[in-house]
Hints:
single chain, alpha/beta, 3-stranded antiparallel beta sheet, 14 strands, globular
Amino acid sequence: xxxxxxxxxxxxxxxxxxxxxxxxxxxxxxxxxxxxxxxxxxxxxxxxxxxxxxxxxxxxxxxxxxxxxxxxxxxxxxxxxxxxxxxxxxxxxxxxxxxxxxxxxxxxxxxxxxxxxxxxxxxxxxxxxxxxxxxxxxxxxxxxxxxxxxxxxxxxxxxxxxxxxxxxxxxxxxxxxxxxxxxxxxxxxxxxxxxxxxxxxxxxxxxxxxxxxxxxxxxxxxxxxxxxxxxxxxxxxxxxxxxxxxxxxxxxxxxxxxxxxxxxxxxxxxxxxxxxxxxxxxxxxxxxxxxxxxxxxxxxxxxxxxxxxxxxxxxxxxxxxxxxxxxxxxxxxxxxxxxxxxxxxxxxxxxxxxxxxxxxxxxxxxxxxxxxxxxxxxxxxxxxxxxxxxxxxxxxxxxxxxxxxxxxxxxxxxxxxxxxxxxxxxxxxxxxxxxxxxxxxxxxxxxxxxxxxxxxxxxxxxxxxxxxxxxxxxxxxxxx
Length: 480
């Protein structure tokens, strides 16, 4: 009797518990379900590397292409949240303000304590970035020289370990047994430091091999042959505090055929800087390139054929089949919308591509023709490279700072617009209400104009054409 009573009571309690459990509210939706419900995948990135970057206001790069594909797979839109530093990206992810972080992030022990990494996108290693005229072959030979880096970058620790293995010290000042370490502003992009090496503004920096060998690095005088870092994975990051659903879905997609097709496209572009077409072709017949007759055909002042040759050299190293990571094509690296506007139906046809580039130069020049020729050419080339809107924003910054907005080149006594356009890389500047066109990787048009002017001067020296601008001192150094 007591046993039966106990049994009935137990069954009643069990039934009550079952009913209560069945009636409790549903579990909260997963992180992945929340993303799909709001219809938006938010990605935090610096937009200044090779994984994600802007080209004339379009987001490009391997990482952004992969994330765009993932967003399409989820049926949501991709929203880019620009951040100034890697630390800020990690904070945005862990605070729930961004779903994924993407910034050419190598998987280090310190970062693994802060965030979860996706499956690897690829492996990379650290390389020493130096000029190719007198490259060093060992880390020990860096003693007496200074390396410029961001203090927070993972490169600092790797360089310190390499120096220790080589038996040399690292300190703030270089000497016979010490590598000098100079810390740059935290907002400085690695690509900007690579460009600074090429332009002789700094002597050495360190970069991941996939960055240093990317097609965005077009300087033939940059040497990245000294590899000293151990292979490390590059991946996306998600919050340490998530439920794992987003990471699982991301990892599955990154191993899909669709993701592999994106990788294949970018793997073809990630090569060592091309040197097959970088030599000057000057001979007794004054040949600068294989395409001189075509440059001469579209010679039209102020862009004479040697200006076109110099521009093509900087754009593509005279490669008619060149394709940039952003999709720019041919000798003059025309973006598809620009090619269409200029009537270029076959962008890899050398004559048609040069004609389109020459036409686009003159379209830009119409905006600046009232300036002295040196500045009119510089502003036109900067507009060709970065887009007119960003150049106008840089002029607005110069005007607000009391500088001359009609002067492109900087001098020892006054900053030119070339310096103000680089400020558009900084969030505090490009988010100002008077800045209409937003973020710009301004170091690119600055160095682009400098390289073309330097190359054009080089051609003038070789052909005996004399001074390019007899009424103005040339703003560039002699060509390497």
